[in-house]
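Known limitations

Files may contain more than one protein. Parsers should not assume a single record per file. Below, a two-record file is shown to illustrate correct handling: read the sequence, read the token line, then continue until end of file.
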Amino acid sequence: MRKACLVGAVILAGTVLSGCGTDDDKPDKPDRGTHAGPQRDEKAPADSRSTVIERATGSWKTILSKTDFETLTVKDGHVTAKGSELACEGSLKPGTQDGEEAPSLTFSSCKGNTDGGRGLGHLTLKDTKNDALAINWEGPKGGWGGPVDSFRRTG
């Protein structure tokens, strides 16, 4: 019986003592889920609930070796594409293609008055981190289709 009382007393004492002290006694530390490092200036990619146009905002660089456009910049739905011989500007308009969100892009102005045979394009984001962008161009009317421009997010 003495052993049972002794074991009960040890368990009771351990339970009471384990509750001693509070988080107020400890110095302030960040929660496990927070980031205590310096704030980043660059804008992180938008989450998956935003539109493709919002997630496409930023600077992009081509992944292709032979292409008309080396860089692409998207800001507030306005697109600027630049290459060594071709530079174009246009706007993205919300749309769908094959049941997926795919905003359309038509260049409104291009250096040299040509868009390189692109016509109407449909923008898609690839990869789970939204760091791969592709524009599938329909090409000139009555043609067999146009080029595909592929980019990776920079910065």
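...continuing to the second record:
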Amino acid sequence: MRTHRTFTALVAIAGLTVAAAGTAHAATTGDDAPSACRPANHRAEITRDQGSAGHFHFRVTLTAPRGYASCVLAGSPTDLRFSDHGAAVPVTAGRYGDQGAAVTFGPGRPVHFDVQVPDGGRVLAADEAAFTLRTPDNTIPGASFAEGEFAVAPGTLVGPVQPGA
């Protein structure tokens, strides 16, 4: 009798373990997956882009790993703050471009936005940007961070989120 109870208990524990593993997997790959738009669920990198007349351009690319749900972003990020080796860089960025266009972001669907910096003024080095992403109706809570060597200056503008890397 004792052997039968032990065996039954082990089978029940194994069944719960398999069920729990299935639930954890479903939470990261199914419809209930966390949003890729949440700051903790994506990666952002800043790289130099092709310049234009009178401006430097830097591209901020956002990518999301598998296991997160796609989401919709719109317009330019807000609340941009720049820093260089942890020290704040005193530049406030404006926005340009269509602020209402919706873009889908998620695993396999990277997005980017442009940082346009005038090259005729005092250019300041930076290595990190903090920003708040926007949806068509609201903002995403929390700050996202992008790292990379770039520069900013008074008159810096940030373009809307666009599809692609």
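Parsers that stop after the first record will miss the second one. For reference, the second record is described as follows. Residues 1-30 have pLDDT under 50 and may be disordered.
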